[in-house]
Design goal:
The protein is an all-alpha fold and about 150 residues long. It is built from seven helices and no strands. The protein is about 80% helix and about 0% strand.
């Protein structure tokens, strides 16, 4: 398979993860707005900005690895695992309204995000650390929501 085809498949996969996650998130917005949240909660506009940055960086990382022939199977496996966990968390937390199960899923996602970023070669890895840091922050917020509600 040509590298350009692999990059197209990568971008379509990332768009699918973002799109499906957004659908699950929007389903639970009314419920979410009624939840008690900690006082340290980030402003709402931050969430789409950070996630868009993370998805863009993931695309750059994966396509650079493809074009430089440094892509490992492990990098893509962990990328897929992270995509599945991101969508699963949106489903569990927002659509199914299971805050404790959301905590469990996001803890696995936090661990998987670190493993994914550690697979990345080169200086771009430094920029990609925004992803596990964001998921760890989200884990703390998820725990707070579970406790408060």
């Amino acid at each position: 398979m040509k590298n350009s085809t692999k990059c197209v498949i990568t971008v379509l996969s990332i768009v699918a993860v973002a799109g499906i996650g957004s659908i699950f998130t929007s389903i639970g917005q009314e419920w979410y707005s009624l939840l008690e949240k900690p006082t340290q909660w980030p402003p709402s506009f931050i969430f789409p900005v950070v996630w868009s940055t993370i998805y863009l960086l993931a695309f750059i990382v994966l396509c650079r690895a493809i074009s430089n022939d440094t892509a490992t199977k492990s990098l893509f496996v962990w990328g897929v695992i992270n995509g599945i966990l991101n969508v699963l968390w949106c489903l569990v937390f927002f659509t199914l309204k299971l805050t404790f199960v959301g905590v469990v899923v996001i803890v696995f996602n936090a661990v998987a995000s670190v493993v994914f970023v550690r697979q990345i070669e080169g200086k771009i890895q430094y920029a990609m650390w925004i992803y596990p840091l964001w998921v760890m922050l989200a884990t703390m917020l998820n725990v707070a929501v579970w406790i408060l509600n």
